[in-house]
Amino acid sequence: MPIQTRTLQKEHLSRREFCAGLLGAAALAGAASSVRAEAWKPNYILASALYGTFPLADILPEIAKTGSACLDVWCLKHGNQREQIEEMGHDAFSELLKKHGAKVGSFTNYPLGPFGLQPEIKILAKFGGSILVTGSGGPKGLSGAAAKAEMAKFLEKMKPHADAAGAAGVKIAIENHSASLLHHPDSLRAFVELNKHSSLGVALAPHHLHTFAEQIPQLIEDLGSHLIFFYAQEHGRGYTEKLPKNEELMQLPGFGGGLDYKPVLRALRKINYPGWIEIFMHPTPRGIPILPRVAEVSAAVNKSRAYLEQCLP
């Protein structure tokens, strides 16, 4: 065989082997991604507000009972556990956590707003928490270019607060509340486009997106790494007026509210969402437990958790 022919065959073979190697690497990467997606499981956090103003000593044992990793501490008007911490003192609360083998994951504080959180950052970090949840404030009802323009202003104002959070190892999660700037899907996508701070993200609340329910799975994908907190709560029959208890509970997953969680969980799995999922609802009036007894509240959370597990794709 001529030398030139042998050289061409060798070159052709090496190219073929190279292409095969690329295909093999792609297949392995795809398989690894599939394994990660298949292995994804929800990471639950328990909201203290579900228990109204029950004492922390009664709530902390429920963290493990509800399959949760830690506690989200709420303040008035939704709960008063944050105020309880100040009343008993930080050292006493630390001892209470140790006694029950419990952990704090987050503080939810809407009264302080996004620009008043800095005092809370250090306290949350002191207890080992890592997420501060609040709202964005107004202006509300914006979409399109107006939402993007206001979001740019908001994110600029948030820089020193996000810097302070990052320095303490904490992140600030802004909820998409219906009466706020961060609400319309356009505003959520503007947040993703404009936010460059790793210590600032979104707490996604599907119950505030009930008029855009079909967009929720895609919004989860669009948010990607900007999604750092997720509420398993739906609109149900509403949450602003007093309803019969069975209708009020329809905000919880698995209680007949109507939101299809399968595509929602599929989207969370697709982005390999690492953050917490909080099973949640609003009672009316605010500040009361969703059910009369601690054990009943935990049983409702567990019913929702079992339903979500059934919806896992």
Q: What tags apply to this protein structure?
A:
alpha/beta, TIM Barrel, 2 domains, 8-stranded parallel β-barrel, 8 strands, 47% helix
Summarize the structure.
The chain is an alpha/beta fold and 313 residues long. It contains 12 helices and 8 strands.
Describe the structure.
It is built from 12 helices and 8 strands. With 313 residues, it is α/β, with parallel strands linked by helices. It has an 8-stranded parallel beta barrel with strand order 1-2-3-4-5-6-7-8. The radius of gyration is 23 Å and the shape is globular.
pLDDT < 50 stretches = 2-13, 22-35
The total tally of domains equals: 2
Helix content: 40-55%
Order of helices and strands: HEHHEHHEHEHEHEHEHHEH
CATH architecture of the largest domain: Alpha-Beta Barrel
What class do helices, strands and sheet pairing give? alpha/beta
CATH top level of the largest domain is Alpha Beta
Gyration radius, rounded: 23 Å
Strand order of the largest sheet: 1-2-3-4-5-6-7-8
Main sheet attributes: strand count, strand direction, barrel closure: 8 strands, parallel, barrel
User: Kindly, what is the distance between the CA atoms of the first and last residues, rounded to a whole number of angstroms?
Assistant: 58 Å
CATH superfamily of the largest domain: Divalent-metal-dependent TIM barrel enzymes
Number of helices: 12
Strand content: 5-15%
> Taking all residues together, what is the mean pLDDT?
91
Total beta strand runs: 8
- Oligomeric state of the chains present here: single chain
| CATH topology title of the largest domain | TIM Barrel
3D shape: globular
